[in-house]
């Protein structure tokens, strides 16, 4: 289906992310001028999963394009929890490192939560620690989980006021579904979180003014589940460049929808890099930059 035949208008994350990137590049230059330091993001990858390798490479390239320093730490799949925590602790103590990204998911034997908690809040630019989650939940200063934070920025860019809306989040992961619900609650939406054990899921989704699909299953949310005029945010990315929604079916009923690719993905990276600049400015004591 072409854009001209869609009922829904596309929420162009690529365009909004480019605007954020331009502002971030200017801010990075100001940080360099005032401090002599260059904001630095370190990506930590355990194993050699092809998708994770690609994602971390994309993030490093985007950092470098905006004038930041990007470093990589690559560890073998056999790495233990203790070894990963030690590597993250070393980065935490390195004053030249301003942001740390642990690419997830990590290999199964590793305690992912223990690894995340080895990242100090000041360098948690991906918003994955319990500290960051608490800050989001209470509306306190801190870094947002990159994908939910990016979704909120996209909603703002299109002047969408979610006050009073019934928002249904399909997915309850601690770095996507749950923080997404918290951020929407902060903006006065009424939020329902659904998951794999939710009964009568299609009927619940059909009540939503705003649907966030974050379940990690290709084309899971069907067009027949969508209320006419609802807003659909597809936070999924699956093999074959498809999201968690049946795009054509959902677009035929929604008023606004994110494409895959080009919707949430660019916003996630833009938010991550913007928060790295925020972290650098805070750590370097630069007010007003």
Description:
Helix content is 41%, strand content 14%. It is globular, with a radius of gyration of 19 Å. Strand 2 (40-46), helix 2 (50-65) and strand 3 form a beta-alpha-beta unit. The model has no long low-confidence stretch (mean pLDDT 95). The chain has 2 domains: 36-121, Leucine Dehydrogenase, chain A, domain 1 (Rossmann fold, 3-Layer(aba) Sandwich), CATH 3.40.50; 146-265, NAD(P)-binding Rossmann-like Domain (Rossmann fold). It is of the alpha/beta class and 289 residues long. The termini are far apart.
Task: Write a compact overview of the structure shown.
This protein has 289 residues and is of the alpha/beta class. 41% of the residues lie in helices and 14% in strands.
């Amino acid at each position: 289906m072409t854009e001209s035949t869609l009922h829904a208008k596309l929420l162009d994350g690529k365009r909004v992310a480019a605007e954020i990137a331009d502002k971030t590049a200017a801010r990075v230059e100001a940080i360099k001028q005032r401090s002599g330091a260059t904001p630095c993001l370190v990506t930590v990858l355990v194993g050699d999963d092809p998708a994770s390798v690609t994602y971390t490479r994309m993030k490093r390239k985007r950092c470098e394009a905006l004038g930041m320093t990007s470093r990589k730490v690559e560890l073998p799949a056999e790495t233990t929890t203790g070894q990963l925590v030690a590597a993250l602790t070393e980065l935490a103590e390195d004053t030249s490192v301003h942001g740390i990204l642990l690419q997830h998911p990590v290999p199964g034997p590793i305690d992912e939560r223990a690894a995340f908690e080895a990242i100090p809040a000041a360098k948690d630019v991906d918003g994955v620690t319990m500290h960051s989650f608490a800050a989001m939940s209470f509306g306190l200063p801190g870094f947002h989980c990159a994908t939910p934070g990016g979704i909120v920025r996209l909603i703002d860019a299109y002047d969408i006021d979610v006050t009073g809306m019934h928002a249904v989040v399909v997915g309850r992961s601690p770095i996507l579904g749950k923080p997404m619900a918290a951020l929407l609650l902060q903006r006065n939406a009424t939020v329902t979180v659904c998951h794999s054990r939710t009964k009568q899921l299609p009927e619940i989704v059909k009540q939503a003014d705003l649907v966030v699909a974050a379940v990690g299953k290709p084309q899971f949310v069907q067009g027949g589940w969508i209320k006419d005029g609802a807003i659909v945010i597809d936070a999924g990315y699956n093999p074959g460049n498809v999201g968690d929604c049946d795009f054509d079916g959902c677009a035929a009923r929604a008023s606004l929808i994110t494409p895959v690719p080009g919707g949430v993905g660019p916003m996630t990276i833009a938010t991550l890099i913007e928060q790295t600049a925020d972290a650098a400015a805070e750590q370097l004591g630069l007010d007003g930059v």
